[in-house]
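Per your request, structure below.
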């Protein structure tokens, strides 16, 4: 039996495999670090959510400067280790800090945050010039 191999397709497959090795199939380190965060652009604002189970609002600090949102704090999960040995630990413990650059200008004085059931939600309203503009088409 004769197999026909397309060398260009084979090179493309190899390139894709190498990309997946180095990029982790589309996920970067930040996507696997604590806390897990999502950011959504709704047109008028950027909404960021973060999973922070077991923390209180006093454990969390949020800052925004020069287009960079930073979430930091302390996770005390497993801090009291008296009387037991950890068999497996997947949840992070200790100090954390995570930052990322936002893709548009934000109205800093209107940023607000809420914390409910371990989910932090940060709403960052866009400046007027960052909001999408509707352009009407003139018919002649």
């Amino acid at each position: 039996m004769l197999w026909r191999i397309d060398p260009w397709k084979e090179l493309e497959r190899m390139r894709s495999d190498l990309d997946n090795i180095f990029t982790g199939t589309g996920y970067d380190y930040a996507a696997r670090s604590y806390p897990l965060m999502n950011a959504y652009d709704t047109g008028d604002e950027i909404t960021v959510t973060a999973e922070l189970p077991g923390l209180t609002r006093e454990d969390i600090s949020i800052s925004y400067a020069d287009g960079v949102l930073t979430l930091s704090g302390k996770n005390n999960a497993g801090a009291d280790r008296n009387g037991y040995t950890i068999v497996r630990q997947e949840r992070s413990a200790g100090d954390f800090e995570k930052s990322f650059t936002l893709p548009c200008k934000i109205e800093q004085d209107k940023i607000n945050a809420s914390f409910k059931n371990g989910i932090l939600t940060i709403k960052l309203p866009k400046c007027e010039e960052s909001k999408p503009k509707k352009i009407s088409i003139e018919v002649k």
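Residues 30 and 98 are 8 Å apart (CA to CA).

Regards,
D.
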